[in-house]
Amino acid sequence: MKKKWGVLSLVFVITLTGCIPGLERAEEDVIIVEETEEEDVTEYIITPTIESPDHFYRNVLVDGTYQRSEARGTTAHAMNNRIDIDQFELGLMEIASSVYEQEGYYFQEGSHLSGELINSWLRRYDEDDNPAGLNPAPGSGDSEEKRLADKPLIISHIMEHNYYTGNDESGVNLSGVVIGISLRSVYYFRTEDEDGGYYFHEKEVDPNDALEHGEEAAQKILERLREMEGLEDVPVTIALYNEEARGSIVPGTFVAMAQAGSGDDSLGNWEAINEEFITFPSSQAREVQPGLSDNFTKFRQDIETFFDTNVGVVGKGRYKNDTLQELKIEINLQSHGKAEIVALTQFLSGKVENTFGNNAPVYIYVESVNGAEALIVQIPEQEPYMHVYR
Length: 390
Prior knowledge:
Elements: E1 9-13, E2 28-34, E3 41-46, E4 58-62, E5 65-66, H1 82-97, E6 106-109, H2 115-122, H3 144-150, E7 155-167, E8 171-183, E9 186-192, E10 198-204, H4 207-226, E11 236-242, E12 253-260, E13 271-272, E14 275-280, H5 283-288, H6 290-307, E15 312-320, E16 323-332, H7 338-356, E17 362-368, E18 371-378, E19 385-388
Parallel strand pairs: 4-6, 8-11, 16-17
Antiparallel strand pairs: 1-2, 2-3, 3-4, 4-5, 6-7, 7-8, 9-10, 11-12, 12-13, 14-15, 15-16, 17-18, 18-19
InterPro entries: CamS
Protein name: CamS family sex pheromone protein
């Protein structure tokens, strides 16, 4: 049935502002679209803008409900650790922000790629059983191990994000699709002998081979998107993510992105992404970031002096184009009294800016065997914010 869309009305709801510096909450836009030929009224809500260093997108809610991707939780992805999964999703939003500015676009999880479809793409190519597979068919060899290791499964996950625009005349419209393709750095697999015994193997994936395979898969995905209803003319951005090995304490990074304009059937030139995560303390940190490494060591010594004992302190710095984007520090304590936690939080709040400068956000998480104890956030050009959990 064809539906006529009535006049779009815009309602502003004033929300309470928070008390965290730099995290003020703006007005909430509620867009109501009335269907004139049916009694049902679909209400599209744009979540409030929250000012933060991450500049997160506002979300499109339908009838007040967050729209989860049907593929979430059903795709048989095999990313090797939780931090890779989180970074893949959040990093994909950051990729999008270089194309779709946060003030004019709204985010919604993917709605065009189902879990069943993505699973078929993640499996190996088979001319008869799975012609949609984007991972290579097994190689040649006398053993199963040789056949699998010769042609490793390179693509582990595919994620879709949708970006909408809207105004008080035309409502919300899909204006951009961003696809993330996660590439393995290590292929973990198992084989089974005739007695039912399992053998576990791993094979490093050459990063150049992974990149080449990812670019080829990206072009195939674009062609398939263009055949889907509603995606014939929508701009598409595809980004490639390189995972870290299992057990890594830092996540992988996005390594390349390419775009196809409205209606384009081929991706433009691939743009390299220079991103890196560095752990403090480490030999790598001392070699490539000696200044920050020395400051981190001093910071850790100050904490150990405060407690007069050794304390677990680990930092993770994210760099883009060799410039620090953010530094996250985790402090793990044994059980301590709240008065001591309050004193430590005050002590660290006075140290953070003088120790690490004021060029990038610094997040300090204080935890103990009892859970989260305190949070300190230092945003450039702002006073540090601290919170002690009760």
